[in-house]
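Hi L., both proteins are below.
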Amino acid sequence: MTHAHAGLQGLTVLVGEPGPVRGSALHDALTTAGLHVIGPMRDAASLREMLDVFVVDAVLVNALMLRGPAAPALPPLAAGTGLLVFGSPAMLAAIPLPPGARRLAGPATPAALRRNLGRLLAARPRPV
């Protein structure tokens, strides 16, 4: 782990990604940064189930998974948990996100994911 990843060390992120190859790459990139990774969940139902079971610091989800029934399950989450949604610019523009959620358009490279997760988590309100 490098100093650049220090702010992510030990945090827990839930990953929603339907593609097995990208899901594996996301898992590797996030664990390399020192995060505890739950998933990747391959479908919306599994993503919702994990939200009911685990306390997470952030949710990283492919915008494709927020079409349809998964979207209503995520707005309450954004109040206390960081939500980073990645996908194509067109897909991100078509999906309403709760306040506080961040969008990552274009290729979700490991560096871009870590940088955006770090910013998202740094901006969260701290418990008193």
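That was the first. Here is the second:
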Amino acid sequence: MDVINQIIQQSAIGAFSNAVRKIVLTVFLAIVLTLLSMLTALLLNGQQIHISFGY
């Protein structure tokens, strides 16, 4: 936990208050979890999807 706190303090969000840090980390985690769920859905259902490029 000390390593994570040190990384946060030395990053760009280190100067902000704890509330702002929590909001930034929550948004970041939401984006990461969304991307992971989309990747999982693509890997599980990728064979049924027809992707065409162009018109």
